[in-house]
Design brief:
single chain, mainly alpha
Length: 139
């Protein structure tokens, strides 16, 4: 039962990440005006990370109780969520605001931090794929 719950939780995490990355984000930036899209993203991202953080914590706890070594992967996943939400995201918002005044250094920092969150997000998708595969193939 714990195994099935963990598979379901990680599948929800993966589905959420793929949907947000490949459907929602592109739609937001193609269908909404730039300023509106930016404001909307600033509202959505904290909730996105909170949702992923809570689910990954549930997954991690379930894996610890099930004596799964895959818990190590979920620790990394959870840390990625915390770093992205609590450290990088606030800085991205600051540098984005500063870059609107043609501040090249701020724009450069925004781009660097944005790429780092994209990289973390991609790594988390890979982690989810690995965890789900291991849970299914090696119950």
């Amino acid at each position: 039962m714990l195994l099935l719950a963990t598979i379901i939780i990680n599948s929800i995490i993966l589905g959420t990440m793929i949907f947000f990355s490949f459907v929602m984000a592109p739609l937001i930036f193609t269908k909404l005006e730039g300023e509106v899209a930016g404001k909307f993203i600033r509202i959505v991202f904290p909730w996105y990370y909170l949702f992923l953080g809570i689910l990954s914590l549930f997954s991690l706890i379930a894996m610890v109780f099930a004596n799964r070594m895959d818990a190590i992967f979920m620790i990394l996943f959870f840390l990625g969520v915390v770093v992205s939400r609590q450290i990088i995201m606030p800085k991205i918002n600051i540098y984005r605001d500063l870059s609107t005044n043609n501040n090249r250094k701020a724009e450069s920092m925004f781009n660097l931090l944005h790429r780092s969150t994209v990289g973390i997000n991609f790594a988390q998708i890979v982690i989810c794929l690995i965890v789900i595969s291991r849970l299914v193939l090696y119950p």
